[in-house]
Specification:
The protein is an alpha+beta fold. It has helices at residues 2-14, 19-31, 39-42, 73-80, 94-104, 106-115; strands spanning 49-56, 59-65. It contains six helices and two strands; from the N terminus they run αααββααα. Strand 1 and strand 2 form a beta hairpin. The structure holds heme C. Heme C is lined by residues 33, 36, 38, 40-42, 65-66, 68, 71, 76, 79-80, 84, 86-88, 90, 100.
Length: 120
């Protein structure tokens, strides 16, 4: 996590001018990742979402997308491309996984970047 964090920090500082573009790209990927948008099952901010309630042999069950905005990068990275029942497989690239993780944690990254402003 620390390594990735430093990586993002370096990226954000060196790309401060194209900041909006990165935000848009990250948001675009989260909403339209070559398939069904993550937000439809995991919520707009990755907070988790109830998808459906159904009855199974008289018992009420829920089908829900877990919260995905509190995972470490390692967990996120390992899980996002694995076979998960109820979730499409996306075959995301390393870069796409990093961008999605950034999207879900962008406020933390932005706060950290503000503490270390760009120095020319
Ligand atoms: C059709 C619904 C659906 C979509 C779309 C979807 N997911 Fe999921 N996802 C699930 C379900 C269901 C689980 C498993 C929840 C459980 O185990 O209880 C899951 C699990 C996960 C997990 C593992 C969470 C954990 O703690 O085990 C991650 C990470 C994840 N999804 C990321 C994503 C990302 C990123 C996207 C978009 C690229 C996405 N998902 C799109 C339904 C979806």
């Amino acid at each position: 996590m620390r390594g990735v964090f430093v990586l993002f920090l370096a990226f954000m500082i060196s790309h401060a001018d194209s900041f909006i573009t990165k935000e848009e790209y990250a948001s675009g990927l989260y909403h339209n990742p070559r398939g069904v948008g993550c937000h439809l099952c995991h919520g707009e901010a990755g907070e988790g979402k109830l998808i459906a309630r159904y009855k199974d042999e008289g018992e009420m069950k829920v089908f829900a997308g877990k919260p995905i905005n509190k995972l470490s990068f390692k967990e996120f990275d390992e899980k996002v491309n694995s076979r998960i029942v109820g979730m499409p497989r996306y075959y995301l690239t390393d870069n796409e996984i990093q961008i999605l993780y950034y999207y879900l944690h962008r406020e933390e990254f932005q706060r950290a970047a503000q503490k270390h402003p760009k120095t020319h």
